[in-house]
Amino acid sequence: MTSSHGRGLHLAAAVDQRSAYDADSYVELARLAESGGLDFVTLDDTFARPGPDALAVLSRVAPATNRIGLVPTVTTTHTEPFQVQAAVATLDWVSRGRAGWRLDVSTTEGEARLFGRRHAAPADALWEEAGEVAEVAAQLWDSWEDDAEIRDTATGRFVDRDKLHHVDFTGSEFSVKGPSIVPRPPQGHPVRVVDATEGQARRTAARYADVALVRAASSAQAGAVRAELRAYAEKFGRDPDTLRVLVSLVVDLGDGEHAAEPGHGGGGPRQTAHGPLYRGGPVDLAELIATWHGDRTVDGFHLSPVEPRRDLERLVNGTVALLQHRGLFRTFYPGSALREHLGLARPANRYAVTGGAS
Q: Which residues pair with 234 in a beta bridge?
């Protein structure tokens, strides 16, 4: 169902769980999402509260799943860009081309004190820095050409040095030299995801993200943000059709046999302090998804279950099954890589294409 222009419906789900530290529970949720053909799952992470390392957890989930995309939140503030890109590239290798990376920033003084390297900074400045991290990550992912590895035991040559490229990047708060220590990822560039709801994050998403998440309480609101993101993308020299815009909703499917609460359903979810909340049954959620996507205001949805196991099961067995029955969502994965699920091309290597000097 996914066209080259992304008109196929894209669905993703969060697998966040409070106080869950065993990998098995995350594996179970990811497999459930995979059984519904969802494009990817996300796992949040922050320096502001205790919890498992999202990237490490999804690296454990990777060999226990086959097709679903795996997108951990990785903070670009206070972390080393070189190590971040290497870790994301490694997840892409471990998952055989299913890795994404949800960029986020760290804005509080308490988080800054955990590192002791610098004070907290305004969000706009941090999102500009996040864009720089996204840019240098792409350069480092390209610093190995796809066929740079030789692995010739007879001659003892592991890599063709002519196919490794030098990276020397200076950002506002960091500098990075390369090449990377990890060969070019299977996807070329693992998928970059940004919550584009507010401020400078929207410009960073338009310039660098493959998937932009938007918290919107109505189809019209979502459509306006999508149009703005696509206009920004074009201004930055991108083809707007290479950007997928997904609406983020918190979903409570506890009242599974009842109609959606007033103001929910096809009329749109209710705005709350934690973002737009849909509370109702799987049938009305399927109707909302079909209507908004049919309006061409969104490319898909990123859904965060209130009760992870219960709501994800109702989402997959109810909402997704209904959308599949109506021919609105695929019944099988189109390929093995996350980029294929999203209808996004594998990026060409900037150095190989231009023949740039190493």
A: none
Mean pLDDT of all residues in 13-35: 95
- Which residues, other chains included, contact 206 with Cβ-Cβ below 8 Å and sequence gap of 6+? 196, 212, 229, 230, 232, 233, 235, 236, 238, 243
Single-letter code of the amino acid located at 229: L
* CB count in 10 Å sphere of residue 45: 22
Structure tokens at 251: 């979903």
The residue among 133, 129, 131, 125 whose CA lies nearest residue 206 is 131
296: number of CA atoms within 13 Å, CB side?
4
Give the 3-state secondary structure of residue 195.
strand
Q: CA-CA distances (angstroms) from residue 95 to 157, 194, 289, 346?
A: 27, 21, 29, 16
Tell which wins on pLDDT, 125 or 346. 346
* Angle (CA) 86 338 29, round 5°: 95
- Average pLDDT of span 30-34: 98
Q: Which amino acid is at 256?
A: G
Check whether 263 has a pLDDT greater than 60. Answer: no
Task: Give the number of other CB atoms < 10 A from CB of residue 181.
Answer: 14
DSSP string, 319-352: IIHHHHHTTSS-SS-SSSSHHHHTT-PPPPPHHH
d(CA 18, CA 102): 19
Token readout for 151 is 């692995």
Here the tokens at position 229 are: 């993101």
Query: Looking at residue 124, what is its pLDDT?
Result: 87
Three-state secondary structure call for residue 254: coil
In this predicted model, what pLDDT tens digit does every residue of 139-186 receive, in sequence order? 999 998 887 777 677 776 677 777 888 899 998 888 998 899 999 999
Retrieve residue 281's tokens. 């049954």
CA distance 281 to 303: 14
Element spanning 19, H or E? none
135-162: burial string, b at 16+ Cβ within 10 Å, e else: ebbbbbbbbbbbebeeeeeeeeeebeee
Q: C-alpha angle with apex 101: 100 to 107, nearest 5 degrees?
A: 165
pLDDT level of residue 110 (50, 70, 90 thresholds): confident
